[in-house]
Amino acid sequence: MNPTRREFLGSMAAVSIFPMEAEKPELILFNGNVVTVNAREPRAQALAISRGRIVAIGSDADVLHLAAASSQKIDLGGKTVLPGFIDAHSHPAMAGVMHLRMVDCDLRSIAAIQSAMRERAAKTPAGEWVLGFKYDDTKTTDGRPLKIEDLDAAVPDHPVQIEHRGGHTVYCNSLAFQKAGISDKTPDPPGGKIDRDPATGKLSGRAAESARELFNKVIPEKLTRDDHREGVKLISKMLAKTGITSATEAQGTPTDLLAYQDAHEAGELLYRAYCFINYRYIDSMISAGVRTGLGDEWVRVGAMKLVCDGSISERTARLSTPYEGRPNDYGILVMTEEELYSYGKKAHLAGWQIGTHANGDVGIDTTLRVYERLQKESPRHDPRFRLEHCTLINDDLVARIKALGAIPTPFSTYVYYHGEKMRNYGAERLNHMFALRSFLDAGIRATQASDYPPGEFIPMMALQSEVTRTDMKGNVWGPKQRITVQEAIRVGTINGAYASYEENLKGSLEAGKVADLVVLGRDPLKEDPSTLVTIPVERTMAGGKWTWEA
Ligand SMILES: [Zn+2]
C-alpha cells in the first residue's frame, strides 16, 4: 500500500492539541511518517512533546508552529514512527536476573551446552549449584534431548540444573537429583512428572511442572534486592533496543514489584511494567489493600496470575486430542478447576483482574468455566479476564471469550521462531493455534505477547510471524490465522494497552497520551512481509525520553 501524498494528507485531521498543556513543547519530532493507531487521525507528520506527554500531533506546519525558542526539534527524515510496542505477556524481571546469574544455554549442540556448563562450574566452588536456562531440545543438532549422563559427564562435582526455554521443565545431573531427595523410586508428585528411562526405570534427567518444586526447595536463593534491580536494568536495555516501551511481568512476585520500584527510582527502568502477582501472594496483597491498578504509569500492579495447564513449547499443554505421534499424551492440568475457582473468587471479589495461563483447548475451556461462574455469581463491571496464551481454540471457545469480554494473549513469535515445534501439533490443529484471525474477526482484543524467555520478544519478529505464519525455514503453519500488518500493529500497541486498562494512557499516538514511540528504519506497511524482522529499530522513546538510539 503506497498512499499518494494527497491521500496521506487527506487522512490527517487538523492538528489536535491537548488542552491541559499550555506550556511550550520541549521537543518536536517532525518530517515523519507517523502511524498513529488512532482511527480519527491515522497519519501525522509531527509530534510535540512536553513532560513526557504528547501535547500536539498533526502536520509539520501545524506542529512546528507551536515551537518556542527553547524547543528541541528533530527532523525524522521521513522515517516511520509507531506507538511503542506493548509486550502483554513476558517475564522480563525474572529473565533479567536469569541473565545475571545463569548460563545462557540457547546453544545448538549438547556438546556446546556441556562446555558452557563446565566452564561455569570451573569458576564455582565445588558443591554449589551451576544453573542454566534457555535450553531448547528442539534446537540442538543432536536430535535428542539432554540426558542425565551428559550433565554428569560435563559437571560431576556440582549439582546442575538447566531450565528449558519453555520454563516448565528442567534437566539435572545426578548430584542435583540427590540434593532434591529424588531417587529412581520417587513417585511423580501431583501435577508433575519425573521422567525415567522406559527400559531401565532409572532417572532420565528431566523433571516437569510441579516436580520442579523439589529442586526449588534446595537451590539457595542467593539474590539480593540489588540483584533484582540490576536484573530489571539489564533487561530494560534489551527490550528498549527492540522498540518495546511496556511489558507485563506475567508471573510477578512482591520481589519483582519491589525491583521495579527500585529500578524506576534509580532511573534504570526503561519500560512501563504491569506486574502480575502470583496467586500464592494474593492473600497478603488483598489484606494490605492492594489490587490491580495500584501504582503509577511506570510501575503498576497487574492481574493475579493463575496457571491452568502446561506449555506449548514443551508439549505439556492440556489438549482434547493427543499430541501427534503420542496417542496417550494429552498434556497436564496444573491446578484443579476448584483451586482456580477458589483463588479466582477471592481476587474477583477484591477487585483484581485475573490472568490465567491456559494453552490447550481443555485448559481454556476449564478457565472460561471458572470465569463464567465468577461473573454469574458475582457480576463485576469490566473485569477484563485474561487468558494467558490461549493457544488452541475452537469456535465455541471464541464465542465464549467474546461473550465474557476476555482478553487472549497468544504467543506472537512462536510460528516464526519455534517452527520446529509445530509438527507436534499437526497442520490441521495449527489453523486453530495462536488464532489472531479468529480473535480479531470475532471482535476480541488479543494482544502481542512474547512470553520471554520462552519466546523471542522482538516486535518486528512478532509482526512477521503473525502476518506470514511462516517459520525461519520457510514452513507455513496455520495460514488461516494470518492477519494484516496493520492489524498486527494494533495488536502490538493499543490492544496491549487495553489489556492493562491503560488504553487512555498509551497504545496510540494522540495528544494527551504518553510519548512512547519507536522510529523504524523502514515502513512495515510498505515492507515485504517476509522481511519485516529485518526492519531496524533506530530509536525508542518512553515517556518523552530516548531509551534506545542506534
Ligand atoms: Zn509466561
Number of helices: 19
Bound molecules: zinc ion
Largest sheet: 7 strands, parallel
In terms of DSSP E residues, the strand content is: 15-25%
Order of strands across the main sheet: 9-16-17-18-19-20-21
Instruction: Report the span from N to C terminus.
Output: 27 Å
Helix content: 25-40%
Give the CA-based shape.
globular
Mean pLDDT: 94
Record field, number of beta strands: 24
Characterize the quaternary organization of these chains: single chain
Radius of gyration: 24 Å
The poorly predicted ranges are: 1-11
Structural class: alpha/beta
Summarize the structure in words:
- This protein has 550 residues and is of the alpha/beta class.
- 30% of the residues lie in helices and 21% in strands.
- It contains 19 helices and 24 strands.
- The strands form four sheets. The protein has a seven-stranded parallel β-sheet. Strands 4-3-8-22-23-24 form a six-stranded mixed β-sheet, with no helix packed on it. The chain has a six-stranded mixed β-sheet with strand order 10-11-12-13-15-14, sandwiched between helices.
- Helix 11 (337-349) packs across helix 12 and helix 12 (361-377) runs parallel beside helix 13 (395-404).
- The radius of gyration is 24 Å and the shape is globular.
- The two termini are 27 Å apart.
- Residues 89, 91, 250-251, 451 line the site of zinc ion.
